Amino acid sequence: MSSLLEVSGAVVRAGKRDLVGGVDLTVLPGEVVALVGPNGAGKSTLLRAIAGEISLAGGEIALKGRSLAHYSARELAQHRAVLSQHTSVSFEFSVEEIIVMGAGDLRPQSWLRDASRQVMERCDILHLLDRPVTRLSGGEQQRVHFARSMLQLLAADDGSKPGLLLLDEPTASLDLNHQLNTVEIVRDIAQEGTGILLVIHDLNLTAMLANRVAMMKSGKIVATGRPDEVIRNDIMADVFDVRDAVGIAPSPPMPFVLPQSMRLT
Predict the structure, then answer these.
(1) Is there a domain that residue 90 lies in?
(2) Number of domains in the chain
(3) CB 59 within 8 A of CB 7
(4) pLDDT band at residue 262, thresholds of 50, 70 and 90?
(5) CATH code of the domain containing 75
(6) Fewest beta carbons within 10 Å, which of 37, 246, 256, 264?
(7) Does the residue 166 lie in any domain?
(8) Per-residue pLDDT reduced to its tens digit, 127-173
(9) pTM score of the predicted model
């Protein structure tokens, strides 16, 4: 299967310092890839470079076999959607207005009305559609912007699928119910063929969600593979300086992170 996203030797530099140093990464259609690692490892910086928001100092990023540098901003928006960790809205747009913005002018109003309500219902924000987004909680705002990114990919579906969905800490502000709902939504979107690359700190959610994990440290990917191949005690000790924290949950076998001293006996 051809890669939807291919990152080759990507370097992002600030002054003389490499924030991302020579990273190789792929995402296949229908695959969920999680970028994990400690604070300052370069995860969000790499995601922003893949989104086309910051330029590379070296290497290349290709989306659907075409260099990212050869896409216009409008074209790029039709092939990938981005959920940033922090999105600020200064005006009192309603929830529905914010979500519909994701579709641009690609679809008629009748389509937008039906599709926006579908994604709002899926993200459990349909009851908020008339509320000003500035008056919502942080978790509610996060779900609004997630729905906007979903609608963006739906609106761009002109036969050019699969699209790419980039998510930066999509569960960080959410309560447990909505964290699990987001996991289900991401799985469903992937099953429809969309490739998903997400930055996430919760390794237990990562184990539930990701097909593949890329562990970053000091701007480089130091391990990649299935969750059980990467979320291991030796790698956790090297990357996080955390020891003897990984166990395996049975049926199906799945790694989880919990210090030995906190486990029930």
Answers:
(1) no
(2) 1
(3) yes
(4) low
(5) 3.40.50.300
(6) 264
(7) yes
(8) 999 999 989 999 999 999 999 999 998 888 665 577 999 999 999 88
(9) 0.92
